[in-house]
Amino acid sequence: MTHIPVRFEIRTGPIGADVLQRGVQRVLRGENMEAEAISIALVDDATILAINREFLGHDYSTDVITFPLETEPLDAEIVISVETARRQAREYKVSLREELLRLVIHGTLHLAGWRDSSGPDRKKMKAREDYYLEELRK
Q1: How confident is the model at residue 34 (pLDDT cuts 50, 70, 90)?
Q2: pTM of the model
Q3: Longest dimension (CA), the chain
Q4: Among positive and negative, which fits the CA dihedral 90, 98, 5, 49?
């Protein structure tokens, strides 16, 4: 069983760790992956900007960053900006819960090897995100 600690550095309202943990677990099962630990950090825009600058050399805020720390066994961290997720939820007309779940699914799919750097890859990855979101609604 994968250890999935969730660190809330910013408030999310009534959204608990269990929602995000189920998202990670569902993707791991669906992608036939095993992991020792995947931690999730929920942060603000300033924190994710600092992480993006320091580790990826990008001078902008983003919604989610995934860091594979070890590969055998898989140990990783998914960092999500709750402030960006709130804005995106309003833009896409979905709940914050759904947007955070999509972002944790997105981050876990990156660990499974999915990429979104090109248009066709983005489209395939989005379809996979939609698949897992639908599965988690059941």
Answers
A1: very high
A2: 0.96
A3: 39
A4: negative
